[in-house]
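User: Teach me something about this protein's shape.
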Amino acid sequence: MNVIQAVKLYITKMTEESGPGMKVILMDKETTSIVSMVFSQSEILQKEVYLFERIDSHSKWDNLKHMKCIAFLRPTSENIALLSRELRYPKYGVYFIYFSNVISKADIKTLAECDEQEAVREVQEVFADFLAVDRHLFSFNIVGCLHGRSWNQNHLQRCAQGLLAVLLSLKRRAAVRYEAASEPCARLAERVRDLLRREAVLIDNNMPLNGELPTPQLLIIDRRDDPVTPLLSQWTYQAMVHELLTINNHRVSLAHVPNVHKDFKEVVLAAEQDEFYAKNLYSNFGEIGQTMKSLMDEFQKKAKSHEKVESIADMKNFVEAYPLFKKMSGTVTKHVTVVGELSALVSRHHLLAVSELEQELACQSDHAKHLQRLKDLIGNEAVRDHDAAKLVALYALRYEKHASNALGALVDALKARGVSEALARAPLLALEVGGAHARQSDLFGLRDAGKITKRLFKGLSGVENIYTQHTPLLKDTLEDLIKGKLRENLYPTLGGEEISYGRRPQDIVVFIVGGATYEESLCVHQINQANPGVRVVLGGTTIHNSASYFEEIKSAMQGVHRIHTRHIRNV
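Assistant: First, the predicted structure itself:
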């Protein structure tokens, strides 16, 4: 169950089936991202691909009949129209066309009619219709999938098609389960079920029968059930980079960093292409500092060994080691630059104090103490406006029902501090979208005696690290599912699929409507490590940091009246 490997196999197949010779890859905006997430440009060049073209660009090249064209496109009406125009006046010698998902017979007929010069050699469906972020993590890069409690219809269709592609690429015939209290989850589950039925023949041809194995499960859950996780500062390398600098399709912009070298204004952080990053993406910030020192020491040792190049043998050794040496030099500089900027942000904006209160708001209940500390941090100019708004949002969720709730006064304090109107509204919108009325779960463990006991013991035994006390709700949900204890009335299976409840599932795809986080990705990684034989893959409409989560809830509430916070005026 490796989504990166699944996409890589499809792209390798495309480049090999066209045979030897110079090739161009013709893509759309989304398939360009799908390819760039799993292959570096140098890796693609090794497959005799010398040109990358966008189907929606007006290319300056007129006639390239000596080149083979591999078209890799999503099967949208816009792409069919653009490809039809391309085939009427073909620039390339021959075309091998691959669609990232199921294409209709009518669209195939349209393309055939436009191929008057018989340039098309192949038309195939490959199921690489998602962004493979990590081996166990995928996304559709959609922020703002809902309006109120209803889907944006284009996004609903995109997610359903994408989930069909995930199951086909992983060759898993899954039963579909969903969060019963969530209408968006129910709608998506129905749409996926309809696609699975419609493509029954395709599924039969693509997938091995499970035989005696437990039925794989696709579990669709709602971000609103856990609005806390996306609001927390992170302290593992990958999640911290995303929270403080933002990772966009493996790319991180450092253009704002003073005196940064021009080669490092944008850096790529991809585990498949960067050994240091692969080893350390789940390391905490303290460990990263130690590891960076070891990397620097190793680099300096190697640099010293190349200082004396006197004999022919020395030259030969240096030339042979040079590519590795140069690569290592780039890796060291890149990570020193990134970690240096993270460190500067942590100290400049008092992020340790901010994070400590965030964790306490998420995991403990002490209203008077939390309120006082929150007021102190809002009054501290070194704390960023965004972090102040995050803390008030966490307070709003934790103390929603508290008799001495001071949310109105805290929103006034944000405004007095001079935050933007959007940030002043963010805590209220967080409560509208993810408050107790919207949640199926007992997020803060207020109703479940077992959870209260568990938290009490955790508090008594002490926490190893005050900055990582919180565990996402997803962990409990997945552990229940793996043990066969996930309640059918809360997470029903959509009619028709046979599912063996007594048997523990081994293959699970869990999808979060409203976006996943890197903290949840770490949680899935740990579950996979702790449960040999169990394979969990996590997906989300997007991968959130707190800034994109605020955008998500703002989009959901656009034009929607506040009901649960309307007593708080002037915002």
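Now, about its shape. Confidence is low (pLDDT under 50) at residues 452-463. The radius of gyration is 26 Å. If you'd like, I can walk through any region in more detail.
User: That's plenty for now, thanks!
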